[in-house]
Amino acid sequence: MDNMKRNVVVTGFEPFGEHTVNASWVAVQELKKLGLGNDVDLHVLEVPVEYQAVQRIIPTLWKRYKPQLVVHVGLSGMATTVTLEKCGHNEGYKGLDNCGFCPDGHCCVDGGPHCIDSVIDMDSVCKRMAASGLGVAVSVSKDAGRYLCDFTYYTSLYLSHGRSAFIHVPPLGKPYSGEELGRALQAILQEMLDILARAEEEIQCQQRD
Question: Where is this protein chiefly located (predicted)?
Answer without folding.
Answer: cytoplasm
